[in-house]
Design brief:
It is a single chain. β3 and β4 form a beta hairpin. The longest helix is centred in the first third of the chain and has 27 residues. The protein contains three helices and five strands; from the N terminus they run αβαββββα. A five-stranded mixed sheet has the order 2-1-3-4-5, with helices on one face. With 183 residues, it is of the alpha/beta class.
């Protein structure tokens, strides 16, 4: 193939680019994206304006008192960052979220040859009841769990705050996606 033939093919291809671009623009202009919101939620703010979030008491056998406040703050922060909903203290809200922290457990992981665990797993479990007062059939009553492993050479008291922050962040993400994110 000589260079003249190659140049002719390149010129023909370049002439097609504006037509191809115009076709893509026409296709895109005819499309609307009503279901996707760039803020992470799938809510219609013409319908949903308020949410109430009740306390999430600890009902686990093992209790770490700061956990309740940490979880509730992360959940409220996520709602504030990802939605335009107004949080109110009323059962007459458009959406309602309530529940309880049902599990705070430690379990050995990665048992070594000397029968001692080299890792310990901290698992937090939260039961959430989500009520949609505007649309029937959208309610959720579900349990969510998340965990983090840490070295058994570390004391739980030394890593507990950081682990709880990480686990609560993951839990609120899971809960948001299952309820307000409508994933």
């Amino acid at each position: 193939m000589d260079s003249t033939t190659s140049m002719n093919k390149i010129r023909k291809a370049l002439r097609l680019i504006p037509a191809f671009a115009a076709l893509i623009l026409l296709a895109i202009s005819g499309c609307t994206f009503k279901g996707y919101k760039f803020n992470g939620s799938a809510l219609d703010y013409n319908i949903y304006k308020t949410i109430s979030v009740s306390e999430f008491p600890i009902r686990a056998a093992l209790v770490y008192p700061p956990l309740q406040q940490t979880f509730e703050n992360k959940l409220l922060d996520m709602i504030a960052r990802q939605t335009r909903l107004r949080v109110i203290d009323s059962t007459n809200s458009d959406l309602r979220m309530e529940g309880e922290i049902t599990g705070y457990t430690l379990s050995p992981q990665a048992v070594k040859e000397d029968a001692y665990a080299s890792q310990t797993r901290l698992t937090i479990t939260v039961r959430v009841k989500y009520t949609n007062n505007k649309e029937l059939g959208q309610d959720i009553d579900q349990t969510f769990s998340a965990y983090r492993d840490f070295s058994s050479t570390e004391l739980l008291t030394d890593v507990q705050d950081e682990l709880c922050n990480q686990i609560c962040a993951e839990l609120t993400d899971l809960i948001f996606n299952a309820t307000l994110g409508n994933w």
